[in-house]
Design brief:
The chain is an alpha+beta fold and about 280 residues long. It folds into two domains: about 100 residues; about 160 residues, Alpha-Beta Plaits, CATH 3.30.70. The chain is about 65% helix and about 10% strand. It contains eleven helices and four strands, in the order αααααβααββααβαα. A four-stranded antiparallel beta sheet has the order 2-3-1-4, sandwiched between helices. Strand 2 and strand 3 form a beta hairpin. Helix 6 crosses helix 7. It starts with a helix and ends with a helix.
Length: about 280
């Protein structure tokens, strides 16, 4: 009697698991649920056959054969389902890791890469002799008037101004170039296999693009201006020196622009006019 009660309880429990698994398949689209449904179904069938075998002795041998077959199928599908579940979980973990790495390397405001991504590029284990020979140009871009924009229009408009500069730069660089947010109001652009003269020519278009679009992109009557510096590099190992040169060139241009504004205060008033 006790064995019958135990068998009935097992049958009921496994049938409940099978029902839950079938129900979950309707609401959760997950491939591994097919394996678990087949697993619990085969075990339910085996236990039901065993229950029948204990009460009907006429076809005992056949029913026991079916019971053991059901148990075999249960074990086989269980192992297969467990393996599939591990594979899916591993794939999801890898995908989540890649997404976290991407988020860690991306500036959330502009969706440009950040300094962490830049240093990861230089530390990349595949940075071999072939890659260190990569040449091109690097540009440093600084927003001249972000603080006055923040003070006059608020930080929300300042954020829009930063995004506007990133948007303007994306219209000038190529798909293989890399845009980094270098600091609060600074950007860095790596332009591979692009001569310094051509890179400088592209960066000189930034202020024109911003003058034509800044009001539309920010939703405010603001004028955004930038200063830039460009330097060429012949290898990734020389990139640090090129960045330093580009930074000095940017500061020289910015100081020159500020000097012009100090001599012509009307330019400054027009840049930050109130609504």
């Amino acid at each position: 009697m006790d064995s019958n009660v135990g068998l009935v309880l097992q049958c009921v429990g496994i049938l409940v698991l099978t029902s839950i698994s079938i129900f979950l398949r309707r609401t959760i689209k997950r491939a591994s649920l097919k394996h678990w449904t087949a697993t619990w179904s085969s075990l339910s069938l085996a236990l039901l056959i065993l229950f029948v075998t204990f009460h009907f002795t006429v076809t005992t041998t056949f029913l026991f054969s079916v019971y053991f077959l059901g148990q075999y199928i249960f074990g086989l599908v269980f192992i297969s389902g467990s393996r599939r579940e591990v594979e899916l979980t591993t794939q999801e973990l890898i995908k989540a890791r890649d997404q976290l790495e991407m988020l860690a390397k991306m500036d959330p405001l502009t969706e440009a890469l950040n300094r962490h991504a830049f240093h990861s590029l230089l530390r990349h284990p595949e940075t071999t002799v072939e890659e260190t020979k990569t040449s091109g140009s690097v540009a440093i871009i600084d927003i001249d008037n972000l603080k006055p924009i923040n003070d006059t229009w608020g930080h929300s408009t300042g954020d829009k101004a930063i995004r506007a500069v990133a948007r303007a730069m994306r219209s000038l660089v190529r798909a293989d170039d890399m845009l980094f947010r270098w600091g609060g109001d600074e950007f860095l652009v790596l332009m591979f296999k692009l001569p310094e003269a051509e890179a400088n020519r592209r960066m000189e278009k930034l202020n024109t693009i911003l003058q034509e679009n800044s009001e539309r992109w920010t939703g405010m009557p603001v004028t955004i201006t930038i200063s830039h510096g460009v330097a060429g590099f012949q290898s990734l190992t020389a990139l640090a020196t090129a960045i330093e040169s580009a930074d000095k060139a940017m500061y020289a241009q910015r100081n020159q622009v500020r000097g012009v504004r100090e001599l012509n205060p009307e330019l400054l008033q027009n840049a930050y006019r109130n609504p």
